[in-house]
């Protein structure tokens, strides 16, 4: 290859960064959830830290790589970033960055300094992004009911994750503040999204995997609530069994999901399923029910298969130049 060909190839590759979607941080959410699920498996079934520690380092490196790429996009192509911010769907994925930081704070919870830094940065960004996105919802005029989809949970309901590490660090009132915001708006947004799903056209194929996001709020809500109260009370049972019901509902439609081709939005399957897996492990540990222990094992196996497929398919898509292209 001569120098001119190299320059031409570079010129064709570099602009692809301008199409690098902020939704790529959902990959880190999925990997973090997978890591925490295996960490929970070590606590529940066997004591082996090698697997989850390896996953923790892989996830952390992935977070660094994706953050650097998106930082380059901000620096080189600020117009493309503004376009994402103004987009009625993509704007909801900006808090995926702060949620990734919060999840990594849970992953590294045993390293107090690291966890505290990640949690503090993630919490501040999550609250700021929640206020920004909600202001956008209220004041902008370009939203239609057709824009409503499960990704709307990310900016607001993502606050539910804050107490998992925050309660361990001693930030009790801030944890309850974020939990309250997340759980109340989960109910409000659930109503809006269910109305859209019941009475309007189905989600496009590219957005259909986002239906799994419905699992995340009650699953994470259960984990977060238990971390604050340390007791399996009525409310904890309600939100866990709501998560389990939604899991059954999605499982009944599994063949419809299997027909959908791979998109980067397919990573929406990962974190919600991981959250349900972790919640089931905690429920099994607190109740000692054999059914829940078996279900925990089944969910962990399914999650492992799913993550393996997502990673392989994403790598193939990267080498085939299927990602970071104009839609």
Strand content: under 5%
The helix-and-strand class reads mainly alpha
Shape: globular
Helix content estimate: over 70%
Q: Compute the CA-based radius of gyration.
A: 20 Å
Report the average pLDDT across residues.
89
Note poorly predicted spans: 1-13
Largest sheet composition: none
Number of strand segments: 0
Give the distance, in angstroms, between the N- and C-terminal Cα atoms. 31 Å
Q: For this entry, what is the oligomeric state of its chains?
A: single chain
H/I helix tally:
14
Q: Report the order of strands and helices.
A: HHHHHHHHHHHHHH
List the topology elements.
Elements: H1 3-13, H2 25-44, H3 50-76, H4 78-86, H5 95-107, H6 112-139, H7 153-157, H8 162-169, H9 172-199, H10 216-229, H11 234-252, H12 254-258, H13 270-287, H14 290-319
Provide structural commentary.
The chain has 327 residues and is mostly helical. The chain is built from 14 helices and no strands. Helix 2 runs antiparallel to helix 3, helix 2 runs parallel beside helix 13 and helix 5 runs antiparallel to helix 6. The longest helix has 30 residues.
């Amino acid at each position: 290859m001569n120098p001119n060909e190299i320059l031409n190839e570079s010129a064709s590759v570099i602009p692809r960064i301008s199409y690098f979607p902020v939704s790529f941080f959902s990959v880190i959410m999925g990997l973090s959830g997978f890591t925490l699920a295996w960490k929970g498996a070590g606590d529940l079934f066997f004591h082996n830290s090698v697997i989850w520690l390896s996953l923790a380092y892989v996830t952390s490196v992935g977070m660094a790589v994706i953050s650097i790429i998106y930082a380059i996009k901000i620096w080189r192509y600020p117009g493309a970033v503004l376009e994402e911010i103004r987009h009625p769907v993509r704007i909801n994925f900006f808090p995926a960055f702060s949620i990734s930081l919060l999840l990594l704070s849970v992953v590294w919870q045993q390293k107090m300094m690291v966890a505290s830094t990640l949690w503090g940065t993630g919490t501040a960004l999550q609250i700021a992004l929640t206020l920004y996105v909600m202001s956008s919802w209220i004041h902008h005029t370009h939203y239609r009911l057709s824009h409503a989809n499960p990704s709307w949970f990310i900016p607001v309901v993502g606050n539910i994750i804050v107490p998992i590490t925050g309660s361990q660090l001693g930030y009790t009132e801030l944890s309850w503040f974020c939990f309250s915001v997340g759980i109340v708006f989960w109910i409000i947004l659930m109503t809006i999204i269910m109305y859209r799903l019941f009475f309007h056209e189905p989600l496009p194929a590219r957005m259909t995997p986002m239906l799994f996001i419905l699992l995340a709020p009650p699953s994470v809500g259960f984990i977060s609530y238990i971390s604050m109260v340390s007791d399996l009370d009525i409310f904890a049972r309600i939100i866990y069994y709501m998560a389990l019901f939604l899991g059954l509902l999605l499982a009944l439609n599994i063949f419809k999901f299997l027909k959908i081709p791979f998109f980067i939005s397919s990573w929406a399957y990962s974190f919600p399923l991981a959250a349900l897996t972790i919640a089931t492990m905690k429920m099994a540990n607190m109740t000692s029910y054999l059914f829940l222990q078996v279900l925990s094992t089944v969910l962990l196996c399914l999650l492992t298969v799913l993550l393996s497929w997502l990673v392989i398919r994403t790598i193939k898509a990267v080498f085939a130049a299927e990602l970071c292209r104009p839609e």
